[in-house]
Amino acid sequence: MPLTIETCVARHTGDRKEQQDRVALFAHPTRPGTMMAVLADGMGGHTGGAMAAEQVLLKARQNFEAYAPQSETPAHLLEAIINEAHLVIKLTRFTSEQDPHSTAVVFMLQPGRADWAHCGDSRFYHFRGSELVSRSQDHSLVGELQRKGRLDEAAALNHPQRNVLLSCLGSEREPRVDHGRQLPLVAGDSFVLCSDGLWGYFSDEEIGGAVAALSAREAAQVLINNARERSDGYGDNITVAIIKLVEAPVTVAARQAAAVR
């Protein structure tokens, strides 16, 4: 059964004075069925975080448009985007008074496969229906404590140092880049990229349930609205990208052709 792609990106400034998250979806200029989603949560003073996040998007678009699978693997492409954006962000520190940093989640969809990479605590989720298949691991102090079994999920969401990152773009240390992939793809596969301003208010089950039950646009709206309600006036920037694979509708001509056989 052929698949079609349903997508949505959405942002909300939350209770901050400035929107420093960035998100984008773009198709490859010459390869049908190949697209990229990228999300970045910028940090670093007035306009500094927004500038850092913008560099992630610019580098993602440049490298993706030059992608040639005959000479470059998806993993290499995604890692190069993050590492090169990291270098550009570091260089901007010499030409500005800010101390810019950013997270990054980069996702590439091709016919029959999906690949992703991330650095920081912005998250990537893969659901099949409402069931969680995989979720990125936060490069944060709290994430590390969870991996060591010293914090559970509930305690992590309310930890006072939840926003302390161990790896990000623009820092002195080289960014940690984690990878994932899925092949083959089936109808019901959904992929979610989001900043901590969204995932910090939901369990994995809540996010998966909303994405499975609703269209991409409706799910984004419901999740953002609920995050705003749960933030009690202290919400961070909220950003989300949702990519859903659904069965392509059967046309009348296709049904008639099948009936003739």
TrEMBL record:
One of its GO terms (molecular function) is protein serine/threonine phosphatase activity. InterPro entries: PP2C, PPM-type-like_dom_sf, PPM-type_phosphatase-like_dom. It comes from the Bacteria. Residues 6-245 form the PPM-type phosphatase domain. SMART domains: PP2C_SIG, PP2Cc. Signal peptide: none annotated. CDD domains: PP2Cc (cd00143). Pfam families: PP2C_2. This is Serine/threonine protein phosphatase. It comes from Pseudothauera lacus.
